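From: lab user (bench 3)
To: helpdesk
Subject: output format question, protein + cobalt (II) ion

Hello, I'm new to running complex predictions and I'm not sure whether the block I got back is the full result or only part of it. Here's what I submitted:
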Amino acid sequence: MGTVKTAQEIQAMREGGKILAAVLDEVVRRVAPGVSTLFLSDLAHERIFAHDAKPSFLGYQPSGSASPYPAALCVSVNDEVVHAIPSAKRMLKEGDIVGLDLGLWYGGMCVDMAVTVGVGAVGATAQKLIEVTRQSLSRGITAVRNGARTGDIGFAIASYVEKNGFGVVRDLAGHGVGYKVHEDPLIMNFGKKGTGEQLLTGMTIALEPMVTEGDWHVTIDRDGWTIRTRDGKLAAHFEHTLVVMDDGCEILTEL
Ligand code: MF3
Ligand code: CO
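Helpdesk reply: Thanks, we reran it on our side. This is the complete output you should expect:
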Protein backbone atom coordinates (compact mmCIF):
# COMPACT_ATOMS: atom_id res chain seq x y z
CA MET A 1 0.00 0.00 0.00
CA GLY A 2 1.19 3.47 -0.79
CA THR A 3 1.54 5.85 2.16
CA VAL A 4 -0.27 9.20 2.38
CA LYS A 5 2.11 11.99 3.37
CA THR A 6 1.31 14.94 5.63
CA ALA A 7 1.15 18.51 4.28
CA GLN A 8 4.48 19.18 6.01
CA GLU A 9 6.12 16.13 4.42
CA ILE A 10 4.79 17.14 1.01
CA GLN A 11 6.19 20.64 1.52
CA ALA A 12 9.64 19.16 2.24
CA MET A 13 9.37 17.13 -0.98
CA ARG A 14 8.25 20.22 -2.89
CA GLU A 15 11.36 22.09 -1.72
CA GLY A 16 13.59 19.06 -2.31
CA GLY A 17 12.02 18.59 -5.75
CA LYS A 18 12.87 22.15 -6.76
CA ILE A 19 16.46 21.67 -5.63
CA LEU A 20 16.63 18.39 -7.55
CA ALA A 21 15.26 19.95 -10.74
CA ALA A 22 17.75 22.83 -10.44
CA VAL A 23 20.72 20.50 -9.87
CA LEU A 24 19.75 18.19 -12.72
CA ASP A 25 19.39 21.23 -14.97
CA GLU A 26 22.91 22.32 -14.04
CA VAL A 27 24.17 18.84 -14.90
CA VAL A 28 22.32 18.81 -18.24
CA ARG A 29 24.01 22.10 -19.17
CA ARG A 30 27.42 20.44 -18.83
CA VAL A 31 26.62 17.51 -21.13
CA ALA A 32 28.97 17.78 -24.14
CA PRO A 33 31.34 15.65 -26.21
CA GLY A 34 34.50 14.79 -24.24
CA VAL A 35 32.88 15.12 -20.79
CA SER A 36 33.19 12.00 -18.62
CA THR A 37 30.18 10.45 -16.95
CA LEU A 38 31.99 10.69 -13.59
CA PHE A 39 32.44 14.44 -14.04
CA LEU A 40 28.65 14.78 -14.30
CA SER A 41 28.11 12.66 -11.19
CA ASP A 42 30.69 14.58 -9.17
CA LEU A 43 29.06 17.85 -10.24
CA ALA A 44 25.64 16.58 -9.15
CA HIS A 45 27.09 15.46 -5.80
CA GLU A 46 28.72 18.83 -5.15
CA ARG A 47 25.63 20.84 -6.17
CA ILE A 48 23.35 18.71 -3.97
CA PHE A 49 25.53 19.43 -0.92
CA ALA A 50 25.62 23.13 -1.84
CA HIS A 51 21.81 23.14 -1.44
CA ASP A 52 21.97 21.45 2.01
CA ALA A 53 20.59 18.23 0.57
CA LYS A 54 22.13 14.74 0.38
CA PRO A 55 22.34 12.31 -2.53
CA SER A 56 19.92 9.40 -2.08
CA PHE A 57 21.42 6.91 -4.55
CA LEU A 58 25.00 6.97 -3.19
CA GLY A 59 25.29 3.89 -0.97
CA TYR A 60 21.76 2.75 -1.75
CA GLN A 61 21.46 -1.05 -1.62
CA PRO A 62 18.10 -2.60 -2.44
CA SER A 63 17.55 -5.99 -0.82
CA GLY A 64 18.98 -8.71 -3.06
CA SER A 65 21.53 -6.49 -4.79
CA ALA A 66 25.20 -7.43 -4.52
CA SER A 67 26.69 -4.01 -3.75
CA PRO A 68 25.63 -0.51 -2.77
CA TYR A 69 25.29 1.97 -5.64
CA PRO A 70 28.64 3.84 -5.69
CA ALA A 71 27.71 7.31 -7.02
CA ALA A 72 25.26 10.21 -6.70
CA LEU A 73 24.07 10.09 -10.31
CA CYS A 74 23.14 7.28 -12.70
CA VAL A 75 24.54 8.08 -16.18
CA SER A 76 23.21 5.66 -18.79
CA VAL A 77 24.48 6.08 -22.36
CA ASN A 78 22.82 4.76 -25.57
CA ASP A 79 21.91 1.07 -25.01
CA GLU A 80 22.29 1.48 -21.24
CA VAL A 81 18.71 1.81 -19.98
CA VAL A 82 19.22 2.83 -16.34
CA HIS A 83 21.57 2.56 -13.32
CA ALA A 84 24.87 2.71 -15.26
CA ILE A 85 27.76 3.63 -12.95
CA PRO A 86 29.67 6.81 -13.80
CA SER A 87 33.32 6.43 -14.76
CA ALA A 88 36.24 8.78 -15.46
CA LYS A 89 37.03 6.62 -18.48
CA ARG A 90 33.61 6.90 -20.10
CA MET A 91 33.61 10.00 -22.31
CA LEU A 92 30.45 11.23 -23.95
CA LYS A 93 30.64 11.68 -27.71
CA GLU A 94 28.64 13.59 -30.29
CA GLY A 95 25.45 11.74 -31.17
CA ASP A 96 25.16 9.78 -27.89
CA ILE A 97 22.00 9.96 -25.85
CA VAL A 98 22.48 10.07 -22.09
CA GLY A 99 20.03 9.30 -19.31
CA LEU A 100 20.67 11.24 -16.09
CA ASP A 101 18.86 9.88 -13.02
CA LEU A 102 19.25 11.65 -9.67
CA GLY A 103 17.70 11.51 -6.22
CA LEU A 104 18.18 13.46 -3.02
CA TRP A 105 17.16 13.73 0.62
CA TYR A 106 15.89 17.06 1.89
CA GLY A 107 14.01 17.78 5.12
CA GLY A 108 13.85 14.05 5.89
CA MET A 109 12.16 13.16 2.60
CA CYS A 110 13.49 11.93 -0.73
CA VAL A 111 12.62 12.79 -4.33
CA ASP A 112 13.63 11.17 -7.61
CA MET A 113 13.95 12.50 -11.19
CA ALA A 114 15.45 11.56 -14.55
CA VAL A 115 15.86 13.04 -18.03
CA THR A 116 17.45 11.88 -21.26
CA VAL A 117 19.33 14.34 -23.48
CA GLY A 118 21.33 14.19 -26.69
CA VAL A 119 25.07 14.93 -26.78
CA GLY A 120 25.45 17.55 -29.52
CA ALA A 121 23.46 16.64 -32.63
CA VAL A 122 21.75 13.22 -32.48
CA GLY A 123 20.11 11.09 -35.17
CA ALA A 124 16.43 11.34 -36.07
CA THR A 125 15.49 8.03 -34.41
CA ALA A 126 17.31 8.99 -31.21
CA GLN A 127 15.53 12.35 -31.16
CA LYS A 128 12.15 10.71 -31.69
CA LEU A 129 12.89 8.15 -28.96
CA ILE A 130 13.67 10.95 -26.50
CA GLU A 131 10.52 12.90 -27.41
CA VAL A 132 8.22 9.86 -27.26
CA THR A 133 9.64 8.88 -23.87
CA ARG A 134 9.20 12.40 -22.50
CA GLN A 135 5.66 12.50 -23.84
CA SER A 136 4.86 9.03 -22.44
CA LEU A 137 5.69 10.36 -18.97
CA SER A 138 3.25 13.24 -19.57
CA ARG A 139 0.56 10.73 -20.61
CA GLY A 140 1.18 8.76 -17.43
CA ILE A 141 1.02 11.93 -15.31
CA THR A 142 -2.33 12.84 -16.91
CA ALA A 143 -3.77 9.54 -15.62
CA VAL A 144 -2.90 10.35 -11.98
CA ARG A 145 -5.67 11.49 -9.61
CA ASN A 146 -7.38 10.39 -6.40
CA GLY A 147 -8.98 6.99 -7.05
CA ALA A 148 -7.02 6.19 -10.23
CA ARG A 149 -5.32 2.80 -10.37
CA THR A 150 -1.71 1.97 -11.20
CA GLY A 151 -2.92 0.08 -14.28
CA ASP A 152 -4.49 3.29 -15.63
CA ILE A 153 -1.02 4.89 -15.62
CA GLY A 154 0.68 1.86 -17.18
CA PHE A 155 -1.96 1.69 -19.88
CA ALA A 156 -1.57 5.39 -20.70
CA ILE A 157 2.22 5.05 -21.00
CA ALA A 158 2.44 1.79 -22.97
CA SER A 159 -0.37 2.54 -25.40
CA TYR A 160 1.30 5.81 -26.37
CA VAL A 161 4.79 4.29 -26.68
CA GLU A 162 3.66 1.28 -28.71
CA LYS A 163 1.54 3.43 -31.04
CA ASN A 164 4.82 5.19 -31.84
CA GLY A 165 6.60 1.93 -32.61
CA PHE A 166 8.85 1.72 -29.56
CA GLY A 167 9.07 -0.80 -26.68
CA VAL A 168 8.36 -0.46 -22.95
CA VAL A 169 10.80 -2.14 -20.56
CA ARG A 170 8.89 -4.63 -18.38
CA ASP A 171 11.54 -5.38 -15.75
CA LEU A 172 11.64 -2.00 -14.00
CA ALA A 173 8.86 0.28 -12.84
CA GLY A 174 7.81 3.50 -11.17
CA HIS A 175 7.22 3.45 -7.43
CA GLY A 176 6.10 5.21 -4.30
CA VAL A 177 8.75 7.56 -2.93
CA GLY A 178 9.31 9.91 0.01
CA TYR A 179 10.20 8.09 3.23
CA LYS A 180 12.41 5.75 1.20
CA VAL A 181 13.98 5.72 -2.28
CA HIS A 182 11.54 2.98 -3.28
CA GLU A 183 8.17 2.43 -1.60
CA ASP A 184 4.93 0.73 -2.55
CA PRO A 185 3.11 0.78 -4.85
CA LEU A 186 4.99 -0.58 -7.84
CA ILE A 187 3.79 1.34 -10.90
CA MET A 188 4.48 -0.65 -14.04
CA ASN A 189 4.81 1.20 -17.33
CA PHE A 190 2.22 -1.07 -18.96
CA GLY A 191 -1.05 -2.48 -17.74
CA LYS A 192 -4.78 -2.71 -17.94
CA LYS A 193 -7.11 0.17 -17.07
CA GLY A 194 -9.05 -0.32 -13.83
CA THR A 195 -6.51 -2.77 -12.36
CA GLY A 196 -3.81 -2.42 -9.72
CA GLU A 197 -3.57 -0.43 -6.51
CA GLN A 198 -5.72 2.63 -6.10
CA LEU A 199 -3.96 5.99 -5.63
CA LEU A 200 -5.13 8.35 -2.92
CA THR A 201 -4.70 12.10 -2.44
CA GLY A 202 -1.43 12.74 -0.60
CA MET A 203 0.44 9.69 -1.91
CA THR A 204 3.80 10.60 -3.47
CA ILE A 205 4.93 8.55 -6.45
CA ALA A 206 7.69 8.50 -9.06
CA LEU A 207 6.69 7.66 -12.63
CA GLU A 208 9.57 6.57 -14.85
CA PRO A 209 8.95 5.09 -18.28
CA MET A 210 11.96 3.34 -19.85
CA VAL A 211 11.48 3.11 -23.61
CA THR A 212 13.47 1.16 -26.20
CA GLU A 213 14.13 1.77 -29.87
CA GLY A 214 13.85 -1.97 -30.55
CA ASP A 215 12.89 -4.96 -28.42
CA TRP A 216 12.10 -4.19 -24.77
CA HIS A 217 14.11 -7.04 -23.22
CA VAL A 218 17.07 -6.00 -21.05
CA THR A 219 20.16 -7.58 -19.48
CA ILE A 220 22.20 -6.64 -16.42
CA ASP A 221 25.99 -6.20 -16.56
CA ARG A 222 28.46 -8.02 -14.34
CA ASP A 223 28.80 -4.84 -12.28
CA GLY A 224 25.40 -5.79 -10.83
CA TRP A 225 23.88 -2.41 -11.74
CA THR A 226 23.99 -1.41 -15.40
CA ILE A 227 20.78 -2.38 -17.20
CA ARG A 228 21.09 -2.42 -20.99
CA THR A 229 18.96 -3.44 -23.95
CA ARG A 230 19.48 -7.05 -25.02
CA ASP A 231 19.53 -6.09 -28.71
CA GLY A 232 22.03 -3.24 -28.20
CA LYS A 233 19.63 -0.60 -29.49
CA LEU A 234 18.96 2.74 -27.81
CA ALA A 235 16.85 3.35 -24.69
CA ALA A 236 15.54 6.54 -23.06
CA HIS A 237 14.21 7.31 -19.56
CA PHE A 238 12.32 10.20 -17.97
CA GLU A 239 11.11 10.44 -14.37
CA HIS A 240 9.19 12.84 -12.17
CA THR A 241 8.13 12.69 -8.52
CA LEU A 242 4.55 13.84 -7.97
CA VAL A 243 1.87 14.08 -5.33
CA VAL A 244 -1.61 12.73 -6.00
CA MET A 245 -4.41 15.30 -5.68
CA ASP A 246 -8.21 15.11 -5.74
CA ASP A 247 -8.47 16.10 -9.40
CA GLY A 248 -4.97 15.43 -10.76
CA CYS A 249 -1.48 15.75 -9.39
CA GLU A 250 1.29 18.21 -8.70
CA ILE A 251 4.72 17.56 -10.22
CA LEU A 252 7.23 18.09 -7.40
CA THR A 253 10.44 17.83 -9.45
CA GLU A 254 9.98 21.01 -11.47
CA LEU A 255 11.81 24.32 -11.35
N1 MF3 B 1 15.42 6.37 -10.11
C1 MF3 B 1 16.06 5.12 -9.88
C2 MF3 B 1 15.01 4.07 -9.67
O1 MF3 B 1 13.96 4.37 -9.19
C3 MF3 B 1 16.92 5.16 -8.66
C4 MF3 B 1 17.86 4.05 -8.61
S1 MF3 B 1 18.70 4.05 -7.15
C5 MF3 B 1 20.26 3.60 -7.57
O2 MF3 B 1 15.23 2.91 -9.98
F1 MF3 B 1 20.86 3.46 -6.47
F2 MF3 B 1 20.20 2.52 -8.27
F3 MF3 B 1 20.79 4.51 -8.30
CO1 CO C 1 12.80 6.03 -9.48
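A quick orientation on your result: Residues 57, 60, 69, 74, 83, 101, 103, 112, 114, 181, 239 surround MF3 (ligand 1) (CB under 6 Å). Let us know if anything else is unclear.
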